[in-house]
């Protein structure tokens, strides 16, 4: 079998899952994938590798390669490496990212660029998959095209040994790197030759050819829904993915009295179980979003942080959603049973392994509450597997449609964009009765949720503050259900008994109630910190809850100025924004205090929903507008005074708009084209003087 090296760089498991899919499909096409995590540097050596390399690389943070790839990136960025160091290497790379973030797919792009600089050549064009619109829109055709690209690579190395295969590939012989678009249909032809005597081939190929054009028309008919399709999809011959091989054997055994703890959930970082010492509502009751501040008592732990750091909150799934799943799967009477998981002896899954996020012999209740992301949007492979456990033929057909190539638009609209989860599918398709093992195979690990520290340990010794908006949304896939964010909903319920209402933030003592505890863990050290030199000026941009780390910055700076009264401290600008001055102006009193005592030298606040009356030029509507109004000063801080700019908050709109505003400011104030201004901003990012903490 023809071998290729398959490396994945993953942060939350997406890249790993895609790499495993490639590995499993490879056998069908006569290839053998040598699959490794990119961090397992003892298992491969690119310097001596003779086989083609396939890489799947995710992006984390604000355009960084995932943690598992840090060592690899550092190694290939070694400036002493000669430009022909990897000249022998042929590779194909699939990058994963989210276009809501400024540096889309940058994790993959960094590696791709460096491999090229070291002389490696692509045998297959790089793919960039966008989680904002659906990774599968790029991932599926990229994988489908990979086989013919590998075929061409091996044939070109083998010369003319197999004339018939060479002729098959002749139409692509003039290209150095093969594109997924051209090879998508060809690889489908290969599948059809294997699976089909020819009856469905014409229909499937015709559907593939027009699929991209029809994707928008498929969703025009208002009668289509999660459970119901309309022509042409309802009448189409379907091209559905192959059934993922089942590989987990699950047995439920009566418990012997052992108890689990949150620490049983496997984590790399240490876990600290700490009490909540205070909880305050920072917004009025009629504010559009409710924002809470929580204070944790970390005095009896060795948890330490500095302003700008973030940390993880380990949170459970909603109890009501867990109970629904137990009832729906007919397992409610066995919720306390221990879950014993083994690999199926006869599985066809290559490299099958037990999921690391399932603790040994935990209870079924604990498994669904603390280990599995039951709110995850099901991937097509999960839908395909669920279809085979659905008794009703119409329901089974609809699940097959949603995971088919022809149903891509319906999947995007009714599953992905609707945020449907397993519970929604089980409500929508009553005859679907999946075994527990299937959930363990397809549901990802319940991830801890990151929060920015909103305090300084100098200002609040032994305490840690953080703030959040309570996320609320309607899920109406089959019936209208009001849902809260997994973590924010849990936290809000947890602190109800001690919550201080709006305008009581300065009260030292909260309600007298038993302090609830939560589990937290530190996050990998980032660079979102104050400059080492306090004389360097800084610009902070943080609308809404994005102001959190800057409160920590300012508290820290106030204490430093008290300790060093004769010290030279640079200017501090804060651009804050909210909807209404009287409803959600977070930390108003604190910010006025910082301004009054000179810790904060410039405070610019914008209100997006308040209407200015009787003013020629009212307050700016958004933080980016406020930045533009102070264009000269902003450019001066960044370019003349070598200052820093920090941006915290919403990635989808605000961060992009602020980025664009900074480009315009640099362009206008220095008289250069926008492309040159973008390069200047990119340089600031490389120098870690343009820093983002966005979500």
TrEMBL record:
EC number: 1.16.1.8
Domain Flavodoxin-like: 4-147
Keywords: Amino-acid biosynthesis, FAD, Flavoprotein, FMN, Methionine biosynthesis, NADP, Oxidoreductase, S-adenosyl-L-methionine
Annotated FAD-binding FR-type domain residues: 269-531
Taxonomic superkingdom: Eukaryota
Any one GO BP annotation for this protein: methionine biosynthetic process
A GO MF label: flavin adenine dinucleotide binding
Protein name: Methionine synthase reductase
Naturally occurring in which organism (per UniProt): Bos indicus
């Amino acid at each position: 079998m023809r071998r290729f090296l398959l490396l994945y760089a993953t942060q939350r498991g997406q890249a790993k899952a895609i790499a495993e899919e490639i590995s499993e499909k490879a056998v069908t096409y006569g290839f053998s994938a040598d699959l490794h995590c990119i961090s397992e540097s003892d298992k491969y050596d690119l310097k001596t590798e003779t086989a083609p390399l396939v890489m799947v690389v995710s992006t984390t943070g604000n355009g960084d390669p995932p943690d598992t790839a840090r060592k690899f990136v550092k190694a290939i960025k070694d400036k002493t490496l000669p430009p022909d160091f990897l000249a022998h290497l042929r590779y194909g790379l699939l990058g994963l990212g989210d276009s809501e973030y400024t540096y889309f797919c940058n994790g993959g792009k960094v590696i791709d660029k460096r491999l090229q600089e070291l002389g490696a050549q692509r045998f297959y064009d790089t793919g960039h998959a966008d989680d904002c619109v659906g990774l599968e829109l790029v991932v599926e055709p990229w994988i489908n095209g990979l086989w013919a690209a590998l075929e061409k690579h091996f044939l070109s190395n083998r010369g003319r040994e197999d004339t018939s295969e060479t002729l098959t590939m002749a139409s692509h012989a003039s290209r150095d790197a093969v594109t997924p678009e051209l090879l998508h249909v060809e690889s489908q032809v290969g599948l059809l030759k294997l699976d089909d005597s020819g009856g469905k081939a014409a229909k499937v190929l015709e559907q593939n050819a027009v699929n991209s054009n029809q994707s928008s028309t498929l969703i025009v008919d208002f009668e289509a829904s999660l459970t119901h399709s309309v022509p042409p999809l309802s009448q189409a011959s379907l091209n559905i993915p192959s059934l993922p091989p089942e590989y987990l054997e699950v047995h439920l055994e009566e418990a012997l009295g052992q108890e689990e703890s949150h620490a049983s959930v496997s984590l790399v970082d240490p876990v600290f179980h700490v009490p909540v010492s205070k909880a305050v509502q920072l917004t009025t009751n009629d504010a559009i979003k409710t924002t809470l501040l929580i204070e944790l008592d970390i005095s009896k732990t060795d948890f330490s942080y500095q302003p700008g750091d973030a940390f993880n909150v380990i949170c459970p799934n909603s109890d009501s959603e867990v109970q629904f799943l137990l009832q729906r799967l007919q397992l409610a009477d066995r919720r306390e049973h221990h879950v014993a998981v083994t690999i199926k002896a006869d599985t066809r899954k290559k490299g099958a392994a037990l999921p690391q996020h399932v603790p040994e012999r935990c209870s079924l209740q604990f498994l669904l509450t603390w280990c599995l992301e039951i709110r995850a949007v099901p991937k097509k492979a999960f839908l395909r597997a669920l279809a085979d456990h659905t008794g009703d033929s119409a329901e089974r057909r609809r699940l097959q449609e949603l995971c088919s190539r022809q149903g891509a638009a319906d999947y995007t609209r009714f599953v992905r964009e609707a945020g449907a989860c397993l519970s929604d599918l089980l409500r929508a398709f009553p005859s679907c009765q999946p075994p527990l093992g299937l959930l363990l195979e397809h549901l990802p690990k319940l991830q801890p949720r990151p929060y920015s520290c909103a305090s300084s340990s100098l200002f609040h010794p032994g305490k840690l503050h953080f703030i959040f908006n309570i996320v609320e949304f309607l899920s109406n896939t089959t019936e209208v259900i009001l849902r809260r964010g997994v973590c924010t909903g849990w936290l809000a319920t947890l602190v109800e008994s001690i919550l201080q209402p709006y305008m009581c933030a300065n009260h030292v003592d909260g309600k007298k109630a038993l302090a609830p505890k939560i589990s937290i863990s530190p996050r990998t050290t980032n660079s979102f910190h104050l400059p080492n030199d306090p004389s360097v000026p800084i610009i902070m941009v943080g609308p809404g809850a994005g102001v959190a780390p800057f409160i920590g910055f300012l508290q820290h700076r106030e204490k430093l100025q008290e300790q060093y009264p004769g010290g030279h401290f640079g200017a501090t600008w804060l651009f804050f924004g909210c909807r209404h001055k009287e409803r959600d102006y977070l930390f108003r009193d604190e910010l006025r205090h910082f301004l009054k005592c000179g810790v904060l030298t410039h405070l610019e606040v914008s209100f997006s929903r308040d209407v200015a009356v009787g003013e020629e030029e009212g307050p700016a509507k958004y933080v980016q507008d406020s930045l533009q109004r102070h264009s000269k000063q902003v450019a001066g801080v960044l370019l003349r005074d070598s200052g820093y700019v920090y941006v915290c908050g919403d990635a989808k709109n605000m961060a992009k708009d602020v980025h664009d505003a900074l480009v315009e400011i640099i362009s206008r104030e220095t008289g250069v084209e926008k492309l040159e201004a973008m390069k200047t901003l990119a340089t600031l990012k490389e120098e870690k003087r343009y820093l983002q903490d966005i979500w």
